[in-house]
Amino acid sequence: MELTVTPESFRLAEVFTISRGSKTSAEVLTVRVTEGGVTGWGECVPYARYDETLDSVTAEVRNLPERFDRAALQELLPAGAARNAVDCALWDLEAKQEGKRAWDVAGLPAPGPEITAYTLSLGEPDAMEAAAAKHAHRPLLKIKLGTPDDMARLEAVRRGAPKSRIIVDANEGWTAEVYADLAPHMVRLGVTLVEQPLPAGADDMLAEIERPLLVCADESCHDSATLGALKGKYDVVNIKLDKTGGLTEALILRDAAVAEGYRVMVGCMVGTSLAMAPATLVAQGAMVTDLDGPLLLAEDREHALRFDEAGVHPPEPALWG
C-alpha cells in the first residue's frame, strides 16, 4: 500500500472572516492511498484552533505503518484532520476496489441532495447587509459573529435577507452575559440556531441559563467520546469530518447523538468538493447541512459537487466514493 500526502491551495472568491481571523485561500492536504493499481483519495483542512498545521498533519500521515486498514486506523491516529483524510481515502479506495458506491459499502441508502447553508463572513453591518441581500435567494444563511457588537450585524442581515432562514455561529466569541443579552433578539429576528456561543471548556453556564433557541456544540463536540460532556448544555451537535477524524467516526457520532436525543448539524471547514463529498452521506436527514465550502471558492476540484435549488448533491464516482 502506497500513501502520499500533498499540500494544495485553492483561492477563495472573497476574503473569509470569522472572530479568529481572515483567510484568502483554502490550505488543504490531499492524501492518496494506492493498492493494486487502484487509488483512493481524501482531503483535510488542518485547523490552528486544534493545534494542527500543514506540517504537523503531514507528519502524522507519513508516520503511519506500511499496511493498515480502516479499522486499525481508528487506533493509529486520534480524531482530527490527519485521520480524516486517510479514512476518507480508504473509503474511496474500498468503493473503487469493490465496484460499488461508498454508501453501498457503508450499508446506507443512496443519498439525495440536501439544502445547505451559505455562510456570510464577519464584517461591518453595512457589508453584511449587502452580502445578505446578494444571497437573499438562498433558503438558509449562516452568519459568522462572535464580538460584543453583534446586534447591529444581526439586524443588518435580517434587513438584507428578510425571508431566509438564519443560523448564527459565534465561534466561541461570546460570554454568557453577551449570549443572554442577544438570545431574545435572535429569537425576534427569526434565528433558529446558534453555534458555540461560549468557549469550549468554559460552557457550563449553558446548563444554567435560559436557552430560548437551539444551541449547537461545535468546538465542544469532536467525536462520540465527547458527547457525554454536552449533556444539559446543548441541543444540537455539529459533525465535521475534520473533527471526527473521518467518515467512519462521523457515522458513529451521528447515530450516538441521535440515540441520546440530540439533533444533528453536518458542517465543514473551508475546503473543496473532495472534502465535502464524504460528508454528504452523514448529512442525510440532518436538521442543518452546512457544506458550502466549495461555494466560497474561486477554484475547485474537477468533477466538483453539484449545487442547485435542491441543495448539495452527492458526489459523482469521478470525484469520490
Keywords:
globular; 321 residues; 11 helices; alpha/beta; 3-stranded antiparallel β-sheet
Task: Explain this structure.
The protein has 321 residues and is α/β, with parallel strands linked by helices. Helices cover 30% and strands 23% of the residues. It contains eleven helices and 13 strands. α6 links the parallel β5 (140-144) and β6. α1 (54-62) crosses α3 (81-98) and α5 packs parallel to α6 (151-160). The radius of gyration is 19 Å and the shape is globular.
Chain-wise SSE layout:
Blueprint: E1 2-18, E2 21-35, E3 38-44, H1 54-62, H2 70-76, H3 81-98, H4 102-105, E4 118-120, H5 125-134, E5 140-144, H6 151-160, E6 165-169, H7 176-188, E7 191-195, E8 214-217, E9 236-239, H8 241-244, H9 247-259, E10 263-266, H10 273-276, H11 279-282, E11 288-289, E12 307-308, E13 311-312
Parallel strand pairs: 4-5, 5-6, 6-7, 7-8, 8-9, 9-10, 10-11
Antiparallel strand pairs: 1-2, 2-3, 12-13
Task: Summarize it.
The protein has 321 residues and is of the alpha/beta class. The chain contains eleven helices and 13 strands.
Residue share in β-strands = 15-25%
Spatial order of strands in the largest sheet = 4-5-6-7-8-9-10-11
- Report the end-to-end length measured between terminal Cα atoms: 19 Å
Share of helix among residues? 25-40%
Mean pLDDT: 96
Q: Helix and strand string, N-terminal first?
A: EEEHHHHEHEHEHEEEHHEHHEEE
Radius of gyration: 19 Å
- Helical region count? 11
Structural class: alpha/beta
Major sheet summary line: 8 strands, parallel
Show unreliable segments. none
Shape: globular
Oligomer: single chain
Total strand segments? 13
